[in-house]
Amino acid sequence: MRSEDKATFKARVWQWAQKLDVQVQSIMLRSMHNKWASCSSSGRLTFDTSLLDLPIHLQDYAIVHELLHLQVPNHGRLWQCLMQAYLGDYESSEEELKRIASKQQNKSCK
Hints:
4 helices, Zincin-like, mainly alpha, 3-stranded mixed β-sheet, 3 strands, 57% helix
């Protein structure tokens, strides 16, 4: 993985954070085996490095998903409405990421 890929991804996270008006303390990229990303209530975001190999719309899904959790800590109606407001048909990206994760999991089991 190239450092400029990481820098570009992090820059996009900062852009989205500004657009969503959320406070981010730090952004990390590392290998995560069970999920695409996570966030802490203090604003620390961690993203799986394999996101860098995915299309931009899937990266944006993961970024916006986590950033919105800094405002809404669950996946309830408000969170869903905000996802739709910022990404439109976010559910299709969610399903696509699930399919990719399933394929990756199947490869690691063989």
